[in-house]
Write a structure and sequence with these properties.
mainly alpha; 2 domains; 9 helices; 77% helix; globular
């Protein structure tokens, strides 16, 4: 397994840091988040091959995933908000552009969860595992529902549920799980507590809007679109803020190395 993980890196990187990295891997057993961190770091190494001499993996102490996780959170937040807005204002019969943005944004949030969880899990494994499970499952189910909507339409898909119902279940799990992940991040202090608090607040507000909207409470119909947009904006802003805080946190490590 360790040799396979090392081979994920560019040949130039392996020639320079391969022996050192292998020694680092031999120092402790690898967990799932460690593997995810290493895979994301390998992607980072391919993307930044020209800066190969900037730092070795051991010098960065397995924090390369922080950059990719933060970048994915920013991208996911923007894409989700753009997709939701496009859906609301689209008057054509072609939902593909907005659905594609929502799908890409959801997938980006899954990458963000993996990267940011891997960064925190070394110091708080049980807490992060618990906080990671629900939003990761939610984003995965959301992606399945979105893809199924484009393939089978509105017909039954799994256990009598339509793709739209599956997507909604995944969306609710993503929102609730994002709030739990934000609270766990707030507790660990590994990333900005203000950004984590913003994501927790945005997730809670959007969840409340969805619950109120689904319950059919009288007297809010006229305000439902505005409330939904405010909730979506707060949720997306929370992820963007957390991602930006992660990217900023990564910069001093890169500069020091």
């Amino acid at each position: 397994m360790k040799s396979l993980l090392i081979r994920l890196y560019p040949a130039r990187w392996r020639a320079r840091y391969g022996d050192e990295f292998e020694a680092v891997l031999d120092e402790f057993p690898l967990g799932p988040f460690d593997v995810a961190d290493i895979v994301l770091a390998a992607i980072d190494a391919h993307l930044h091959l020209r800066r190969l001499g900037a730092a070795s993996h051991s010098q960065r102490s397995f924090t390369m995933s922080l950059r990719l996780g933060g970048s994915a959170a920013i991208l996911g937040g923007f894409l989700l908000l753009a997709g939701w807005v496009a859906t609301a204002i689209d008057e054509t019969d072609n939902p593909f552009p907005s659905a594609a943005m929502i799908l890409a944004g959801t997938a980006a949030l899954l990458v963000a969860l993996i990267g940011l969880s891997a960064f925190q899990a070394r110091r708080h494994p049980r807490l992060i595992w618990t906080a990671f499970a629900i939003p990761a499952l939610g984003t995965a189910v959301s992606c399945i529902g979105l893809v199924a909507m484009g393939v089978v339409g509105d017909g039954p898909f799994v256990a009598g549920l339509s793709p739209w119902s599956i997507w909604m279940l995944g969306l609710v799990a993503t929102i609730v799980g994002s709030g739990l992940f934000a609270l766990a991040t707030y507790h660990t202090r590994a990333i900005s507590r203000s950004a984590a608090g913003l994501l927790a607040g945005g997730s809670g507000f959007l969840f409340a809007v969805l619950v109120v909207g689904m319950s059919g409470v009288l007297g809010i119909d006229a305000f439902a679109p505005a409330l939904m947009f405010a909730g979506l904006l707060a949720f997306s802003a929370g992820w963007i803020s957390l991602g930006w805080a992660a990217v900023r946190l990564d910069r001093p490590a890169a500069a020091t190395a």
